Amino acid sequence: MRSPLFKIILFFLVLAIAYTVFSDFVLSPYFASSGRPWGQVIADVLFTATLSIIFIKIAISYEKIMQQREQDFKSLFHENPNIMFVFGVEKRNILAANNAALEKYGYSEKELLKMTMLDLMPLDDKEAFEEKEQLAKYKDKDGQIPQPSLWKHVSVTGQLFYITMALRNIQFEGEDAQVATITDITHQVLTQEKLQSSEKQLNALINNIDDTVWITDTRGTLVSYNKQFKNLLHQFAQIDVQLLARKNLAAIHPKSQLYKWIVYHNRAMRGEYIRAEEELIIGNTSLYFDIAIAPIYNEEAVLIGIGAICRDITKHKSDEAKIKQQLQQLKTINWVQSHELRRPLSNILGIIEALRISGKSLNEEQELVQMLQTSGEQLDDIIRVIVKQAAKE
């Protein structure tokens, strides 16, 4: 197929020769007196022919260059490791497919050239693709359609895979067409789906526990958190968690009770594991929290973030104080039992032994009875103290 330039030169040659041969005959009635020899006519024809031959050689050379470029393009297209199609804009019929496309989809080139791009898609993607194709009307100055699109394609065996499709407008054999460069991202999509599923499970887990949980990246920006963290942040720092998600922990004011957490975060960024108890005050009430902050590493031992868990231990601290108080009371009771209670008890035992021995006078017996009564009263008082101490528990 000859190029337009070659046709133009050929037309110029015919027109020039016709003009050279017939112009004198046409014009001779008007310029008969001047006359013109046939030698001049032949010279004009030779000049025109020579000039035309030069033009033809240029056109042939240009056409060879264009053919070589086309061959290079076809070779680059077919041997490109990326999956590539050329398809018509109007009918979306496939005009060309490279070797990578044949291998990936399992069709022969002959089969693909009878198909459209829609035939490679499952039903639910066909309508969406037609709508997306309207982007071709908004191409940039280089003819590039911005933003590659995510689609599902199906191979000849029915295997479903995810792809991105970057489109570029071209002319292909005189027809408006588009080159589609396709990248198989099935692995990335499935990995992302697993990650999202894991993230949902993580969020479900951390939102159903009483502990406060949050995770940041290395810049201190929130990656994940639960509702307890949101409430704690609002309660003690007067910050909406959305603000912190857009910025990072630096949004916590230095005068905030939570500012010390930034210090812990920075220490964890240096690889340190932090475990601390913090007292936070609301009005006249003190709340106590056990905080654990640790660095998070990936499989290559590269720091990728910080994880933290904060547990309200206010009740635990209160119970602990009560236990300490009870232990002190038990120590007091133990001392009373070992010292105060032993003294009157020893007196009673001694008096009983004295009464057991006969030969005492009446006055002496009455004195012993009195001592017995006194020791009994002392013992009663001590028992009351013990009962009172036990009641406090």
Features:
393 residues; alpha+beta; Beta-Lactamase; 4 domains; five-stranded antiparallel β-sheet; 10 strands; 53% helix; rod-shaped
Give a short synopsis of this structure.
This protein is of the alpha+beta class. It contains 12 helices and 10 strands.
Can you give a write-up of this model?
By secondary structure, the protein is of the alpha+beta class. The protein has 4 domains: 4-76; 80-184, PAS domain (Beta-Lactamase, 2-Layer Sandwich); 206-312, Beta-Lactamase; 318-392. The chain has helices spanning 4-27, 38-79, 99-105, 109-112, 123-132, 186-206, 227-237, 241-246, 259-269, 314-340, 342-356, 362-392; strands at residues 83-88, 94-97, 149-154, 160-172, 175-184, 212-217, 222-225, 274-282, 285-297, 303-312. It has a 5-stranded antiparallel beta sheet. Strands 7-6-10-9-8 form a 5-stranded antiparallel beta sheet, with helices on both faces. α1 (4-27) packs antiparallel against α2. The chain is rod-shaped, with a radius of gyration of 50 Å. The relative contact order is 0.05. The mean pLDDT is 75.
The average pLDDT score comes to: 75
Q: What structural class results from the helix and strand content?
A: alpha+beta
- Uncertain segments are none
Shape: rod-shaped
Could you please say which CATH topology of the largest domain applies here?
Answer: Beta-Lactamase
Q: How many separate domains make up the residues? A: 4
Total helical segments = 12
The Rg value, from CA coordinates, equals 50 Å
- Report how far the terminal alpha carbons are from each other: 107 Å
* Major sheet summary line: 5 strands, antiparallel
